[in-house]
Amino acid sequence: MKFKLLGIFLFATLGIQAQYTDMINSNRPGESFGAYSVGTNVLQFETGIAYGKDNHTFSLIPDRTQVDFQYQVRFGLFMEQLEVILDGSFVNAEETLLRGGTETTSNFSNFQRNTLGAKYLIYDPFIKRAKEGPNLYSWKKNNLPQWRDLIPAVSLYAGVNLLFGENPFKFPGESNISPKAALITQNNIGRNWVLVSNFIVDKPTSDFPTYAGIFTLTHSIYSRTGVFVEFQTYINDLYSDEVLRAGAAFLVNKNLQVDISGLMNFKDTPERWRAGIGVSYRVDMHDSDQFLFKDRNEEDLFNEERERREREIRRMRRKH
Description:
InterPro entries: FApF (IPR025737). The protein has 320 residues and is an alpha+beta fold. The chain contains four helices and 14 strands. It has a domain at 19-33 and 123-289. Helices cover 15% and strands 51% of the residues.
């Protein structure tokens, strides 16, 4: 009996699954990317619509009203740690300029952002924790924040911006194709808090590269509801800003999430605000788990235990 229990324990703790979860794992409603992928053979759509205004204090700069159509398509490719992401927004804008008592209006629309990239998890601290198992003697150590929560999961992202034609959202002389890269960290703090950080370099080969940081704090208040607050900073020779976002998401079922969010900034050149809603939907084609091993010996031990269990099952079937 002890041997059988030991075998079950080894089979459960050796070779920990990396990414796939039973519930949808969405980047919405914030702008940051989480460190974890959706899982192999999982196709996920994350989309939303936002309405907002950019108001300038300088009379020579037009005010803008715009509607943003936001989209992300994510797919887990080849392995649990890797996903490809198509991320962007299509904007319909109206600019109004008041000069000499005459108001002029212009309308335009195009892709403000369209980026194809890939994200790869290079370190996951929870693999070791899952192997160690829960603390059987302390509820506090299993449920409350610990010092080890400061060790984040880490991913790298690399992508390419794709904006073609006469696009009004491109700065003068900007090329149609430019690179983008990011370092992504994620801290799961206790059972109810998650801190995600993105450190971004966008269009570094252009005349006006952008350096940005996004910091998102999420809190689960009920089993199906979560709230978030997010701070984002941009550094660019043409436009720099600090933005605060907040919102909430509700899990309809394991494959469907809906959300609401808002945005405001801290300057008046322009003064910005946005309000939006969104939905995330997962097409779950994940059929088998990939297991991650510390070394070859651990993989061999896992395979031996799996073969032993299969033989035991076949033996029991013969008896019946």
